[in-house]
Amino acid sequence: MARKNHKDLIVWQKGLTLAHAVHLATAKFPRHELFGLCSQIRRAAVSVPSNIAEGAARSSTREFIQFLHIARGSLAELETQIHLAVQARYIENANTLLYQVEEVGKLLNAVISGLRRRLAQQQH
Asked: For residues 37 and 35, what is the distance between their CA atoms, to the nearest angstrom?
């Protein structure tokens, strides 16, 4: 079974949408945070779809799973940074962002589980 192009993956599409939403939300951060939390939160957000794309381009399912785990780690980092930005009052209403984080997390878990099942079937 041929692997889909990363652009065809819903998890990548949703990750890209999340990264765009984060970029828009951080545009309102104070200037003094430009190279601090703003930069970190944007990097974490961009890392999610980037790692999904890189993993999909790899030659093995095991490598793809590894990159999906990295994307999941970046997603957890992003969620933490969003909560910090809310506490600092840089983001007023983060409900939509946090919903998107949760949605991408569920999709990542589903793709990882599916790929693990495929690997297990191939080994038997």
From this structure: 7
